[in-house]
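Hi support team,

I submitted a single chain yesterday and got back a structure, but I'm not sure I'm reading the token output correctly. Could someone confirm the output below corresponds to the sequence I sent? I've pasted both exactly as they appear in my results page.

Thanks,
R.
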Amino acid sequence: MPQTVMIVDDALFIRTVLRNMLEDCGYHTIAEAGSALEAQRFLHTTTPDLIFLDIILPDANGIEILDDIRCSLPATKVIICSSISQEQTIQKALQHGAAAYLQKPFTQETVAAVLRQMEAS
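Hi R., thanks for writing in. Yes, this is the structure output for that exact sequence:
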């Protein structure tokens, strides 16, 4: 059974590219959000297996949303997907419960590698 995914990123282009890559890997995108508020609305009605979450959103910091997700959906794995490459930010995301950190710009191969990592854990 394919795993379900929610993508949270303020850039429509990123959401579209990532959705296509995920579908090529056999995943089903059940929700896309361009803001924290939109993501929270979806999380009241859906329970994705994976969430790809950007750190920089127009209305919140992705780490804050990560904390909320970890409390409300502890079984859902969250992959931070961001252009921020500072080691301190990456470590903070992992300490707050991110299952992985995917650096933008990403490729089909890097997305597939993160997905394999999630399947193995």
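A quick pointer for reading it: Helices lie at 12-24, 36-43, 62-72, 87-95, 108-120. Let us know if anything else looks off.

Best,
Support desk
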